[in-house]
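User: Precorrin-8X methylmutase. Structure?
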Amino acid sequence: MSEGLVSDGLVSGGPVPGAPPARLYDYVTDPAEIYRRSFAQVRAEADLSGLPADARTVAVRMIHASGDLDLPRSLALHPRLVGAARGALEAGATIFTDAYMIASGVTRRRLPAANAVRCLLDDPRVPERARAWSTTRSAAAVSFWGEELEGAVVAIGNAPTALFHLLEQVAAGGPRPAAVLGIPVGFVGSAESKVALVENPWDLPYLVVHGRRGGSALCASALNALAQEAEIA
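Assistant: Predicted structure:
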């Protein structure tokens, strides 16, 4: 069957309740096969040679999520990032995110210890603290992560202010996460917050996509790759 219409596109009688519509196009429908082909194509077309071996599966998932074969040029990882993040998750660490879209994008079956995934953006205490501290709700939410942040895995893909605030909390003697994915997207503070994370003086393991690129899909894809070494689970 060639790609495209296999009939005139008209199906008489209308849809049958509970039955799929007539298949008019030639396309892959098996989810595992889609992943296999996608990851193989990424590996064939992207230059991953500049990345450590244990980081390449992470980069492959991020490229798959973004469609951006040039992503490895902007990707920077602490030498201990992969080991620290996987070790923390295997030990049951909580995942903290700055956006519900990231939390929704985490594939729960890949989590090694049924890890909690938490975003406190809608916590009722957040708006008042944001006003009192003259900051964003995203940054205020970070302030409520509390002691559970110690040894946690942090994924920030939306708000540079959340990443800056996290670093300021650590500087003030607050809990230190096991690993930080700093991938906020945007034009104001995004690139600068990532540089601050890379240059952090506490040796926090990090993953960043330098520049303005980032977002929830990239952040969730990195989390899903770190959750399990197996590319397809």
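The longest strand covers residues 153-156. The longest helix spans residues 31-45.
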